[in-house]
Specification:
Strands 2, 4, 5, 6, 9, 10 and 11 form a 7-stranded mixed sheet that branches. This protein is mainly beta. The protein is globular, with a radius of gyration of 14 Å. The N and C termini lie far apart (about 40 Å). The longest helix is centred in the last third of the chain and has 6 residues.
Length: about 130
């Protein structure tokens, strides 16, 4: 059974850092792309970053470059999102998702931004940035 469980959210102050974790089980990462998304109250879901399970390559939309870092552990069972210099506008539910490798001509950005790149989703963890 495929499962993705996020953790690490909470209340932080502007400028703080936070590391989110996504524990994956029920599948091996080699044939998947793991993505982090976020959804703020009243807004649509937004892709933050993704990582390839086969070669650890990563992708960040331009709006997410510089403050967010995606990585995974050596055992390949947990994917992390390091968030630095947090701002109030980063407040959102952060979700982890997994997408099976689909098309030979797809790039990582397609998994994150196409709207149908992910096949499994976690329930999310809330990050609140407020003074």
């Amino acid at each position: 059974q495929v499962q993705l469980v996020e953790s690490g959210g909470g209340l932080v102050q502007p400028g703080d850092s936070l590391r989110l974790s996504c524990a994956v089980s029920g599948f091996t990462l080699d044939n998947y792309v793991i993505g982090w998304f976020r959804q703020a109250l009243g807004k649509g879901r937004e892709g933050v970053s993704c990582i390839s399970g086969s070669d650890n390559s990563t992708y960040y939309p331009d709006s997410m470059k510089g403050r967010f870092i995606i990585s995974r552990d050596n055992a390949e069972t947990t994917v992390y999102l390091q968030m630095n210099s947090l701002k109030p506008e980063d407040t959102a539910v952060y979700l982890c998702a997994a997408g099976r490798k689909k098309f030979a001509n797809w790039y990582l950005r397609d998994y994150l931004l196409s709207g149908y790149g992910m096949d499994y989703w976690g329930k999310g963890t809330l990050v609140t940035v407020s003074s």
